[in-house]
Write a structure and sequence with these properties.
single chain, alpha+beta, six-stranded antiparallel sheet, 3 helices, globular
């Protein structure tokens, strides 16, 4: 399996908080490049290189927040569909039934892809 062109990391699990069942820290996809994951593990330090996302259910309830980075270093709006929806398709939907992913835009507001 070749390496993915993107990587993501869950920062906060709003469903389970800090409990032992929390998915905070989960990374993906399985073939994510270690170089991208290393950057994502320090999102504050690397704020200029990573993009914040959040996943919600169909009622608008927040499930997860996290960060994503693409090999090309592009914004979520310039990523290919596989990368832009990667956290949702790889993890949010199958794990918890999340159906929406939003990214912080340049104004700092959440916006869907």
């Amino acid at each position: 399996m070749s390496e993915s062109t993107y990587a993501w990391r869950i920062s906060r699990d709003m469903l389970f908080g800090d409990s032992k069942h929390s998915d905070a820290g989960v990374e993906g996809p399985r073939n994510a490049p270690e170089s991208l994951l290393a950057v994502l593990r320090q999102p504050v330090k690397n704020a200029d290189r990573v993009h914040a996302f959040r996943m919600l259910d169909d009622d608008g309830i927040l499930y997860y927040t996290g960060h994503i980075m693409a090999v090309e270093g592009v914004s979520p709006w310039a990523m290919d569909e596989e990368a832009a929806f990667g956290p949702l398709d790889d993890f949010g939907r199958p794990n918890a039934g999340a159906v929406y992913i939003q990214y912080r835009n340049a104004a700092g507001e959440w916006e869907g892809i």
